[in-house]
Amino acid sequence: MATQGPSVEGADPVINLTLRHGDGRRLAFQQANHTNNDLLAQAPGGPLAQIMGLPGEASPVLYHSTSGEGAEGAFFCGPQGPASLGVFEAPDGNLLIVGLRQAIQFETRPDGQVEALPYSPDQVCARLRFRRG
């Protein structure tokens, strides 16, 4: 379930995402829409799309955990839960959620360009697929 919180004038809104297990456990996330690196990670065909295995110029949305380290009751990605999520809803209604054990890292090259460091497949801790309807 995604909710939008109040936003400060001129700032991006705060968008919260909560994943709930059938037994009541929850994991909380917040959309990563506030830093340049977060925006670079979500670029069409960018690092997050590549990690998620999305075709072409797909633009997934990145969420960072707000549940805290060692989130009690995590129900996927181990007892600590994922550090971040990639979320993509396809036009056909399929929803893909990928759990990441760590944030996507960036570095500035000598020419001033910023690029994502390679992301190890071992750092993907879950691939969840859902269909609406």
How many domains? The number is: 1
- Output the number of helix runs: 2
Helical fraction equals under 10%
Provide the β-strand percentage band. 35-45%
Low-confidence stretches: none
Compute the number of strand runs.
Answer: 9
Distance between the termini: 16 Å
Rg on CA atoms, Å: 15 Å
Largest sheet: 7 strands, antiparallel
Spatial order of the strands in the main sheet?
Answer: 1-2-3-4-5-6-9
Q: Mean pLDDT across all residues, rounded? A: 88
The topology string of helices and strands comes to: EEEHHEEEEEE
Coarse morphology: globular
Going by helix content, strand content and strand pairing, the class is mainly beta
Account of the protein in words:
With 133 residues, the protein is mainly beta. The protein has one domain (2-131). The protein is built from 2 helices and 9 strands, in the order βββααββββββ. It has helices spanning 36-41, 47-52; strands at 2-4, 15-20, 26-31, 61-65, 84-89, 94-100, 106-108, 114-116, 124-131. Strands 1-2-3-4-5-6-9 form a 7-stranded antiparallel beta sheet. A two-stranded antiparallel sheet has the order 7-8. β5 and β6 (94-100) form a beta hairpin. The longest helix is centred in the N-terminal third of the chain and has 6 residues, at 36-41. The radius of gyration is 15 Å and the shape is globular.
